[in-house]
Design a protein that fits this description.
eight-stranded mixed sheet; about 190 residues; alpha/beta; 8 strands
Length: about 190
Amino acid sequence: MHSAPGYELRPTSDRLRETLFNVLTAGNSAALDGTIWIDLYAGTGAVGIEAISRGCGTVYFVDATAHAVDLIRRNLRSLAVEAGFEVMKQDAGRGLQALDLRGVATDFVFLDPPYSMEQEYRDTLDALSHSTVMKTETIVIAEHFKKFDPGETFGPLRRYRRLEQGDAALSFYRMENSVGENHDRE
């Protein structure tokens, strides 16, 4: 996977990515088959590419920087991934608006802004809580610095799980009416 020194790109570590997908599949290798993903602040595209490799149907990679968009495309080409994705050069808010207007409904949203951009977490989680890309069972995963708490609740979007590994943490969110229900992906 290509990355770039000197930029605020911090690809999700292999170990944390493995933990994420183990949690989401819970021993069911077909759990992600055909699912729709949005990879916000996609950076190198590592998480979305992993989702593709595990059978998801489509990944929307969203990043505001031309450099990151070029890296994502280069990484997809180097792995011979030719279908099942769209790369969007937009900030997270505009990307979500564009997907809303297109009627995209997602199963998973992964967001990983640069750790220093703490307000981005809150703004994006709040936007997701009102977005039509969200279905009742959509799972939102925020990767963040473990000493930072992006928040428990954003309108009807509520955190139901938090995992820490090294200096990073993953916060898992679902819409309030689905929190507490038994889901295969939990």
